[in-house]
């Protein structure tokens, strides 16, 4: 009898599909093509910080994250991830990211967080700086720090560069490299969701590789 264990689905979920085919040379200029997104994201992240401050006090006094603020902040992270997926954080699609906070069903990557009906009023005081500190150390290595968009340096950026070199040389994005890049980004985004007060579920110290969420129904 099989006793294979499955991991529970984390409330912050990342899925991705490797683009086929991918241009051999477009990756060299994607950072330039994405510049309009970087400009918009700068202002969105300013609003993200302000919305997070309001949400902090709302959770502290009521135990609830205001749904409009939750949807906005989730959307900013989603937008940032799509830009990273296109550009320096993965290079895994040639489809230009849309200018929207909403999920785009036919885009090759998706990120979302399940809305929590209730959040701990006590945890909000410590989870974003103290409890998540070990993960910050991991992110410092994976991403070279938390940047805009989310993944643009460190080990993730180096692996994306390797993928670009492989595309130029062979026209192929190695599947094993894609799975690793997505796994590292999935870890980072779970940490960001927790630190941004979007969930009370502590991010696991686990590298879940591949384009599908572990434990999700196929």
Notes on the protein architecture:
The chain has 218 residues and is mainly alpha-helical. It has one domain (12-195). It is 48% helix and 5% strand. The chain contains 7 helices and 2 strands. Strands 1-2 form a two-stranded antiparallel ribbon. Helix 2 runs antiparallel to helix 3 and helix 6 (154-170) packs antiparallel against helix 7 (175-195). The chain is globular and about 55 Å long. The model is unreliable at 1-5 (pLDDT under 50).
Task: Describe the SSE topology.
Elements: E1 12-16, H1 30-33, H2 35-62, H3 67-86, E2 109-113, H4 127-131, H5 133-142, H6 154-170, H7 175-195
Shape: globular
Number of domains: 1
Write out the strand line-up for the largest beta sheet, numbering strands in chain order: 1-2
The low-pLDDT segments are: 1-5
Mean pLDDT rating: 91
Number of strands: 2
